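Possible race condition, two jobs.
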Amino acid sequence: MTSGAHELTVPPVSRRLEDGKKVVAQTRKRVTGDPTLCGLALLNGLVGSVLVGGIGAWTLATFSVDDTSHSSVSETAAATVAFLFSGLCSAAVVAACAAQDEGREVTVRVAWSLLRKRWAAVVAWVVLSVAVRMVPDALLGAGSQLLFLAWWLFTVYALPVAVLTGALPHRALVQSVRLVSETFRHTLRDNLRALFPWLLWTMASLIVTGIGTLVHEAYAGEVDSWAVAGVVLAVIGLAGMMFALAMQSAVTAVLNTTVLRAHDAGGDHQRVSWRRLDPGRSGDAGGHGRPDGDQVRHVVPLPAGARAPGGTREKDRVVPPRPRGHR
């Protein structure tokens, strides 16, 4: 699957409400219509469905819903692996998005290869994120949910920072917190918009899973055909949930990558040092290339009449990507 360059027509770092709506809608359209980005999301959903759906089906078929002592370890292990793979897929989406914006043709395989100079930073961040997400309720109770929400909001730019700069978790976290603090209302609003329609899809899938579980429990040991149908329905619901979460993660990754790169290229805040993602070029791939090659050269153009954060108009801010091999 191959996809080419994409160009947004509105400023991701918006100063107006309507700009945020447009960029989220365009990001959603880009992910669902691009074979590489959509392919990575579907791969994420497929792996998550096999892990979570398989464990769910085995749990229903083997244990009672009320008997969770034997199945909790397997469920936790499956969820952990699914979250780890989801984080790696999101990192590949970030790399593919950035490469496309530089005019490169990107396939799913190329997207993964773009991460080979970033594996240490990406894996470290993904493991840290999963560890925070998997904090058991027994340790913090209701506080674990508040911790997760705060972590989700203030780290939305951390994965793009890790992929684009190779920053280790502590540096990526500092960069993300600073950028969220500077653009708090914009970041919160647009990331909440990016949850739809996937959030509704997730809720519907959870309802289907619940119905399937109830049907299985009602007929287990009495009517085998209905019990099996309940298991199948529950698995379908779990698969739907995992695909919805995968698409939501891809949209959010592209949205925040676009915001971060536009912020770095032309914003009026402190910049995040960008290093090229190009494993085929020595120097640039490791982030140690020429000083003038480390900065983002593709700037997202503004709509007609709109002003950038720095105050210049669109015609003065559009900078085409640098040709490869340009000296």
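Job #2 (started ~2 s after job #1):
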Amino acid sequence: MKSIIPLILISLIIAACTTRPPETDNRYPVEIIDDKYLVEKTNEESKNIFAMESAIIEKNRERLALEKKINTQVKLQAETEKELERLKEENKALKDQIRSYGKSKKNAANLKSKKTALGKNENQIKEITALLQYRQLENDYHEAELNLINAELAVYIAELRLEESKIATIYRDKRRKEQEENKEENKDEKKEEKKASLPRISAQTDPDNKYGYKRFSKYLNKAEKDRTKAEAIYKETEKKYLDAKEAIGELN
């Protein structure tokens, strides 16, 4: 029975592509190894592949949960910004009223009341402004965390593809040897091979890239470099966020 896991992984990759920054759109190796080349996996290889696939699915769950959290924070940020704008408008109105009441001694009581309201308003503006700055750092932190998760997901997928390519190479080498030993019995398979998108092996073919699988090593190499960069950005952003969080706690 053909595994449905690869289909799930493809859907995860496509979904991930819609949420990543444009500069990382090509991070994921979307190509898959045909299942027909993986039918002779050993029990140990099957367990290893299953563990790698499970890790990808779990990492994707982390990504989805964090995306949901970020979306909630963005909405909260927008609401807080509206509240700040309202306070600023109120601040302007209070200052206009104070200037108006200040022209007459009859409005001394109203003047005092408005000045008290203005003081409270300006304190609220300072608090909301500080809160917005903190939330922006929090959003930056979670965005960096999401970018790191995407980078880790890319590494996991590339590792899986590379592992599958090794299994597929063994299988295809075995079949090719059988073809060479008995060409007549393998005419149908040779015809099918001619239709394949990958080039047939020739004297000039790179022995380490007989079936075009060398690209998976390149994917992994690039993914690991991207992950290293994402980790550095995450750590830097995390420090700023935690420092701001500590400062907010001290104010409270």
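The first helix runs from residue 5 to 17.
Logs attached separately.
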